[in-house]
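Quick one - first record:
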Amino acid sequence: MPSSNDGVVVWLRNPFDPHERDVHHVQGNTTISQWMNQELIVFEQPTLVLKNGKPVLMAERCVTLIEAGDVIALVSLPQGGGGGGKNPLQTVLMIAVLVVANAYGAELAASFGYSGAVATSVASTAIAVTGSIIVNALVPLPNQSLPNATASSSSPSPTYSLQARGNYGRLSQPIPVVYGQHLIYPDLAAMPYTEYVDNEEYLHQLHVIGIGHFQFEELSIDDSPIASFEEVQAQVIEPGGQNTLFNNDVVTAAEVTGQELIAVADTGGSIIGPFALNPVGTQINQIGIDVVMMRGLYYATDSGTLDSRAVQWRVEARTINDDGDATSGWIHLADESYSAATNTAQRRTYKYGVGAGRYEVRVQRLDTKDTSNRAGHELRWGQAKGYLVNPSLPSDLTLLALRMRATDNLSQRSSRLVNCLVTRKLPVWSKTTGWSAPQATRSIAWAFADAVRSSYGAGLPDAKIDLNALARLDGVWSARGDTFNGVFDQNLTVWDAMGQIARAGRAVPFLQGGIVRIVRDEPKTIPVALFSTRNIVRSSLKIQYVMPGDATADAVTVEYFNPKSWKPDEVTVALAGSALSKPARLKLFGCTDKFQAMREGKYIAAANRYRRRIITFRTELEGLIPTYGDLVAISHDMPSWGVSGEALSWDGASKVLVCSERLPWQTGANHYIALRRVDGSVTDPIGVTLGATERHAVLQQAPSIALQTGGGEERTHFAFGVGQTWAQMARVMSVKPRADLVEVTCVAESASVHTADQT
């Protein structure tokens, strides 16, 4: 039996796999060389020898004693490879320190000159974020590439790219899907067009707010509420609603750019055109012609008054085919005239109904221009417009129509800075009443459900969604004040979108049995299964240690969207004792709350510090009991995680349990035993005291299950230890079939991960 007066020798045969180690207890004072000779130790590869963390040279081994309390580490160096690290030897030493410290106490690590936990990188758990390494084994770190100004799309996000903010027609880009509450600069749903009424210019714009229904909180042009502009009319068009303010689709002839009209009889005069109005494959049933007299119409008399002048012009059109060839003769639409006595610019729009078809148009001035420097007699063709037949837009969109009169108060630039603060309306599910009518919500749960259910999402039926879990989590998130407020306006897979929504709530989506489920990283106290030496395949238990290095982050800077400015902002958080010298930078998509960002930063920092042991083992079919994120209890003597065995006999009257293994009782300590149920789950730990022998445990209360001690049933498994050491709690990361076995990978749990965000 090992004594406190013993020295300990730990031989790490592979420093990058701490499972490959031998542990020896050395009694009495003996030198390192003497002990190696006694044990027939032969190194097959270069090996470091350390005494309490300090290297021992080969020549010193024959005089260096192994005394009581000493820890000798033998670290075999890996061969080949190369490295890339600044100091591979330092990494090896750190691994050695961790393994020894894990078995023999943090005090030993401190004596080696290291404070806090140390670990080596493990694939899928350590991620480099803007130069710093940060670890989160259970919940993916926020994705740096979604969505932002550097997205690979040819059209940057008008929401998240400050340079791209404004109203544009983003051809071939996704229609935005908005969740929660957000400020948006809505895309143009159709080409804007102008019309002149009573010599006033009116700009017509149609915007796409997004798919679905919305509650409008604010509507602005640039930074000014739209109510400040008397010259602006706005109409919100709900899905399937009627649009009365904007002709859904007006096309213009790009070649018409304010060309001056001069009569054919005049020098240099000609008919202007023809110009095709509408694209191939479309039909129009109305033609619009804008004429502009920029200098007004007048003749300045000797007395200083203005006499009137008139202008006359002719508008003609004809049908054309898709090749641009005429299919009819010229149709005389009108001979128009206009007169005025003013030096103020005059603008007019004239509309003509035509039979449905594809058209080209031409315009001719009929009167002779007065070229006197006293006269304003210039006539220009401003624009040619075609009004499409039966234009349509998707019926599931919310649209915003605007009619704006051009004034000094409303510039051409500001008219493209229309923005609105909206809250998405979504159905909310209840177990008793089912789905509600759409209501304004910032819920993570119902945004996630919409992404799964909708036609623009996965399009799955309710039977394929774990709605009960979503409803429970909605209550959790609501109580915490966690919300999702994001705009998907870039190309993205449905699964990535679901992951982004879930990530705002510290959760992960996964598929199980064809059902979309979601699990949040939150405190769990009851393990769903107990794995011990009785059901873990021999020699299959492996523990990987995630080691910090020079690049390991000691703080977290979380970027979120500030709802006051609707621009990126950030907050840096760290755990107690952190130097704040190497913060990792993360973008939490969908977060618009500083305190939510702080909580998530604290959680990430805690996971980075406390979850640094990855545990893998193989078992039989009972490995299928837990699923992703479940809490399991692991009892195993190799890492000193309690003592496990089977129940040999049970006396209900005396509450005495006879165990298959000798139990390591400690004087003055509180001991506990946990029992495995038939379904693989675990009972609450029960206090026990020493019975007649070390194998006899007296339970303080009768167990909640019927104990099996042989016969036709498998014996009840138990796990025993002092206090909480009866087992190592771990969270399941993956469950994979391996031939006729099941491989379970999990991360050692720490309560500190879940309490860090409360400070």
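second record:
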Amino acid sequence: MNTQRLIVERLRGIDQRYYTRPENAAIIEEMTWDTYDGWKAAGGYECITRDLYNWNYIDESLGYLADPSGTSITSIHFYSKRSNYNEIIFEDNYGRLCVLDIGKRKAGLTTEEPFRFLRDLQNVEYNGLSSGRKRYIPRNNDIGTQSCTFGGRLYLVNGVDEPIVYDGNTVDRAGFYEKPGQPKANVVVRSYHNEHISDGGADTDYFLGTRLKSWGLGSLKPKGAKSKNGSKDFIDGKLAGYQYRVTYVNSRGQESEMSEPSDMCIFECADGKKRFVQIQLPVGDDSTVARRLYRTHDQLDDFGNSIGAQVGRNFYFVREIKDNETTMFEDGLPDASLGFMVDDFEFGKYPMQAKFIASFKNCVFLTGGPDNLLRFSASGMPEVFPKRNVIDLGDSDAGKITGMYASTNSLVVFKEYGTYLVKSNPDGSFTYQTISRDIGCIAPNSIKDVPFTGLVFLSHNGIFALKGFLEDSNSPTSIIDLSTPIKETMDRVCVSSSFGSVGCLNRQDKEYWLCVPTIGEKNNLLLVWHYEVGAWSLRNNYPIGCAIETRGPSSDVIFGSSDGEVPGIFVYGHYFRHKNKEGSTAGNSDGPVDKFITRKSFLDNPVYETVPIKLNGTYGSARIAYVNLYAVAYGNSPIKLNFKINRNQELALESDKSMIQQHIDSEEKLDIYGKSFFGRDSFGYHRPIVIRFDISHINKTLVTEFAVRVTQDASQDLSRIMLVGYSVDAKLGEQRNIRALTDVLGSDRR
């Protein structure tokens, strides 16, 4: 028989298509691709507070109604005010808004919570109680709170609660959603006591005025006939008319919508003195720290007629009243001394029902409201949304807006069945173009900018990547399907619940994560895109309800659990072997030992299974002799092998064949982990070896297709595995049995 060897030295990712190349895999679970061009056991995750806090215990005596499904994290946000100031903000299913504060836990002060409640301007806590403030608790298929950073502040929206902004100290409402009340303006009149009246005097009213040319309102332009006594005074003066508007200002210098104009204040200056106008100012809420007063020019002509709407609607800055208490202000600023002109369309309400937020080209974009419109703020004013700053993407049949992402060059806006690019113009305006009317995004939290790949997102039809706009604003933009090799896995995804799917970057291992729900489950299946090699793998038991990637000296993946049986906030590490090994709750002073105690932990096997390999053509068969695994030696860590033949889903062996990672043809044995001495022995990390499995005496049948399955015993807590290639020795052709000549010849020996 002809013996041949098939060598595969560069392993790639999952490809579930019927015919594919031998370097691809049918299954890769709990493994990650390494820059040494191999697949090794993936890491795990641990509760960020380990066993020091019982995340699942709720003290009902405080007024909480314990959730029978357990505690879950509904949103998580990374806030970086400066390079040395980073915080993790999160919400849970009790409506609490908190910031992680685990320093006390690390110090051993286990009786205190590893977080603190955020507070508003009145020092009221977001503790989820009636005595404090409570955030909206998302339903099962809601996306939860979205956030973005602008000007060193964190802005949060969810479409239900009032939008808020966090500056590292307190929480305040973002912007204004109500216009100020209408101001009232009247010419100033004073009164004094006349002592020269014989009856003892009386109060006399007079118009407060001034003869200073640089002060006062109105006009000294004469109107009518001179007085009969020959003085320079005139019987009548020109009528003047003014209107006022007011805006509120918060502590961040953000301005509200303009009030309705005051009724016109009309007066004349017949006595040769200009007048003062008294304005009754509206008072704002607690977030208001100042008010700005605006006024028109004189709106009446020489004949007392209104000048017209074109000019009359222009308002000019008068003064900023730097408090929220003053109710009366007297204005005597002449028209020539007024400040900048403003337009009513330069102001607008903050979109209170927005669900999505992004920062792009020095503006904040909000969308997701009932009107399905895209709104953007004034430049450098993230809480001021002018009435004219609206973009209607059209395509009503494309569904509602489902998310957006801002890059340097473009803002990508998604609908259920549409993708759009918003770009800036030199004059500061924005335009948009349609990229697709068929492919959109169904999971807002899946959208991530992935290196070497593009903007990745989950669609109705799979996982797609938008390429081109991120690298160069002039480069062509295209949409490619990344999920073609894993269509079989994508069929397991529950589309009706996938709106809450979560994407995140794991830069340590050069991965893009997408946690999706399978049929009848919450988010639990982790689809991993290894972007440096362009390959997929899978991981199980990842209850990711929300996730962030921290930036700074280290890049960590931190996620909040959506599973009440695995409560808490977790950090991923490629050095962890278990998933939630220590458990996330503890029977300490945080609550009774027998109440809400959960220690659900996972230890899953790393699995690499090759695609079915044809060793002798499409219709040929072969006998398998040996399987040689090319691996990195990790001492006593065992590697287990099994196989499948002829596309049978059942494994050929009842139990895996196991071998320790030692070199097959060398008398030198690697030092064993746990038994070697530091400084004396040389532990054999990163040493390439060949591990040979004899298959000839196990399976003697002819096979047309052969698949190798490599795994490792999960009970080996400290074990490691790294597979860099394999080869299969097979005997090709049919064996011919030589018969005796006497059996062949007839009776006549012919």
